[in-house]
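Hypothesis: this fold can be encoded by more than one sequence.
Test: take the structure tokens below, design a sequence, compare later.
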């Protein structure tokens, strides 16, 4: 809860306390009308402070006929006919509805301060053989920098000396590190893993990739207009109609069938105006949204505002990242092809040689072997960045790495072109086979996408920084409608903008991702959904919905909650309208009083609460 909302609630609470004290005092003592007026006016101004502020803002923007105009005219009219108690109570209920709505959407405005986590704290500049730590913003194009293992690349640069592996998850979202050597371009925000390298700066810090991502997130959040609330849409038609009707009640009868009876009909017109206040209706909508948000929370889904539930119910285009979203994001051995030995023996050799490495490939080899690894049998291990590793195991020199390593050792083998990362193994100068390591599609991915196709008639799109072969393979398996591969963050944003340009006013676009590279598209899309368990801080911060346990099937739950919430909202609206118009009719003919109108609105709000509580039960039984 923001500081502003806390202050608003405190002022509101103070006003309610003053109101209760005013009622107790007037019940116990006989006060002059002016004293009663002043006491209730103090409560009214405290409680309605935010309403008056909103009205002022609307008037400055030349928006004259809003729900705030109606509530103030109605309550001021109540004071004009000495109905102080009812007038303040109407304002209490109206402002309570506004606070509920503000609370439900409070988290929709997000900061991007956690983006600082991918900014490098310093850069190491090399000048005439000496090294100096400097601020990354001080680097100029052409400067030479040194990046050691474990350090973040400070600016975009080109490698001039050394070979290494770099973690590119900050840009591509992919878990397999990339190998780089002299002449290769490297990007800020990535992490050097294996060996120290030197590089020449090719872009200033403000123009480097990490800074561009931050700018894209900020721009996207500024471009993403807040969803128009139901109250705003409703008020455009409701407020002027109610004002015209109340004026008609005041003017028409005294000029026609009740000629000259102005006092009676002005009074009834004011009652009509007060009854017309959409308090119960206003409350019924945010209460339904809060019910949906609470139901989502019970299922491990954080929704940062009720408007996102409404947008989920309307969504017809879903854009997915690949790694960690549609796939497990954990690489496993998917195929073993041995030459001159058994597959288990090949795995045993590879797992032992890689036993001292923390590289993701080494971890997947050890996991696939599952046998006991005797590290004492492995010695003279040597890692060759950009190629692989070699070590002596059981008296033989073993080479494990990519195709370039086989070519370097002059070991003949065919290139593997299947989806995944092939790890080639050679015993001495003899080719021993390959082990294919690949990411695997999540078990629930097919059923989730099938639901979106069948129930939402959705267009399914994949945007990934992975290679074309890897992306196409997953897209084919999941029957995606569109697939775009080898994308940088700015490329993803460009594709997203193209899809958003094809939407009409009633359609919504949902983006699902987990990496830093997904943050800009999560921020710009109508609903950004982050896979929160393994997702990056910035993806979670910019997302509108967070699936806390990375279960893709929870996307279906979120969509269903959105649809049920929308259904409950319309039920609440219809109920509120029926009660409202019944009381309006009775008030016009002089049967209903202000108290009956106020309590009818309260009854509508209470029924709305009970109806909203049904959302969780509907999810359980559907």
């Amino acid at each position: 809860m923001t500081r502003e909302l806390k202050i608003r609630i405190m002022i509101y609470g103070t006003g309610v306390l003053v109101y209760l004290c005013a009622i107790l005092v007037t019940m116990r003592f006989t006060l002059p009308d002016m004293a009663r007026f002043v006491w209730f006016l103090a409560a009214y101004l405290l409680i309605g402070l935010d309403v008056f502020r909103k009205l002022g803002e609307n008037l400055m923007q030349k928006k004259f006929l809003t729900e705030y105009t109606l509530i103030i005219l109605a309550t001021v009219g109540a004071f004009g006919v000495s109905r102080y108690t009812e007038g303040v109570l109407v304002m209490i209920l109206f402002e309570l509805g506004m606070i509920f709505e503000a609370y439900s959407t409070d988290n929709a405005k997000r900061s991007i301060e956690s983006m600082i986590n991918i900014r490098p704290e310093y850069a190491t500049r090399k000048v005439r053989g000496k090294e100096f730590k400097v601020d990354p913003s001080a680097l100029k194009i052409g400067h030479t920098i040194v990046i050691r293992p474990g350090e973040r690349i400070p600016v975009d640069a080109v490698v001039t000396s050394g070979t290494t592996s770099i973690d590119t998850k900050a840009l591509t979202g992919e878990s397999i590190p990339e190998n780089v050597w002299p002449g290769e371009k490297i990007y800020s925000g990535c992490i050097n893993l294996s060996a120290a390298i030197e590089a020449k700066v090719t872009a200033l810090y403000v123009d480097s990739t990490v800074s561009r991502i931050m700018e894209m997130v900020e721009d996207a959040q500024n471009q993403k207009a807040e969803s128009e609330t139901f109250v705003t849409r409703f008020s455009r038609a409701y407020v002027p109609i109610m004002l015209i009707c109340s004026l008609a009640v005041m003017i028409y009868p005294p000029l026609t069938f009740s000629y000259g009876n102005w006092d009676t009909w002005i009074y009834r017109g004011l009652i009509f105006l007060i009854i017309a206040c959409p308090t119960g209706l206003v409350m019924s909508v945010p209460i339904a949204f809060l019910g949906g948000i609470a139901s989502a929370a019970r299922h491990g889904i954080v929704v940062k505002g009720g408007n996102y539930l409404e947008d989920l119910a309307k969504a017809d285009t879903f854009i997915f990242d690949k790694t960690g979203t549609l796939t497990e994001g954990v690489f496993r051995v998917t195929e073993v092809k041995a030459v001159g030995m058994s597959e288990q023996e090949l795995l045993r050799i590879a797992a032992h040689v890689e036993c001292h490495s923390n590289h993701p490939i080494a971890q997947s080899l050890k996991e696939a072997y599952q046998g006991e690894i005797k590290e004492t049998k492995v010695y003279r291990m040597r890692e060759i960045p950009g190629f692989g590793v070699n070590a002596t195991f059981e008296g033989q020199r073993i080479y494990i790495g990519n195709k370039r390593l086989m070519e370097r050792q002059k070991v003949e083998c065919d290139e593997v072109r299947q989806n995944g990362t092939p790890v080639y193994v050679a015993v001495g100068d003899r080719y021993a086979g390959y082990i294919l390591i690949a990411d695997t599609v999540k078990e629930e991915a097919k059923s989730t996408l099938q639901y979106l196709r069948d129930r939402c008639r959705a267009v399914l799109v994949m945007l990934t920084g992975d290679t074309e072969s890897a992306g196409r393979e997953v897209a084919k398996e999941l029957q995606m409608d569109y697939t775009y591969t080898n994308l940088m963050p700015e490329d993803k944003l460009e594709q997203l903008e193209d899809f958003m340009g094809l939407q009409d006013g009633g359609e919504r676009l949902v983006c699902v991702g987990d990496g830093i590279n997904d943050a800009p598209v999560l921020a710009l899309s109508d609903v950004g959904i982050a896979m929160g368990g393994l997702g990056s801080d910035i993806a979670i911060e910019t997302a509108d919905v967070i699936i806390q346990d990375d279960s893709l099937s929870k996307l279906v739950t979120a969509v269903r909650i959105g649809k049920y919430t929308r259904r409950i909202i319309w039920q609440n609206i219809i109920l509120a309208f029926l009660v409202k118009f019944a009381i309006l009719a009775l008030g016009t003919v002089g049967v209903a009083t202000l108290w009956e109108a106020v309590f009818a609105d309260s009854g509508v709000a209470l029924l709305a609460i009970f109806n909203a509580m049904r959302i969780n039960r509907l999810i359980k039984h559907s």
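The CA atoms of residues 241 and 250 lie 14 Å apart. The first strand starts at residue 123 and ends at 127.
Hypothesis status: open.
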